[in-house]
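Data deposition worksheet. Section B asks for the primary sequence of the deposited chain exactly as it was used as input, without tags or linkers unless they were present during the calculation. Section C holds the resulting structure in token form. Section D is free text for depositor observations; keep each observation to a single sentence. Incomplete worksheets are returned to the depositor.
Section A, Depositor: J.P.
Section B:
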Amino acid sequence: MTHDQEKKSGDENVDCEHDSSGFQGSPEQVIVRAAALLRAAGEPERLRLLERLGFSEACVGELAEELGWGMPTISQRLKVLHQEGLITRRREGKHIYYALDDDHVLQLLNNVMEHVAEGHPKR
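Section C:
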């Protein structure tokens, strides 16, 4: 069912007690972009990389040593995270260092981990 179909079927008699007519929602392009960002972060190994980069910046070699993964695998995962704007990179000599893009990414990561750690059951 498409968004438009859902919208049309939702216009039928709604038997609710509350008024949500003031809800505007985010623009479609923001929703699509946010979904892509969450998909990129939603794979456990990429999430582990984000968690590690929330501690401090690192180069691929450091990440490979710490996490026990191959450098090509880490590079591919970093590429996905970088393409979605979750991490930045900077070159220093022959090394490229990766870090979280900004505090928003760190806050998002911390909020997700805190939410899960609280023990909310899977529904």
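Section D:
The helical segments are 3-10, 28-41, 44-55, 60-67, 71-83, 103-117.
The chain has a mean pLDDT of 89.
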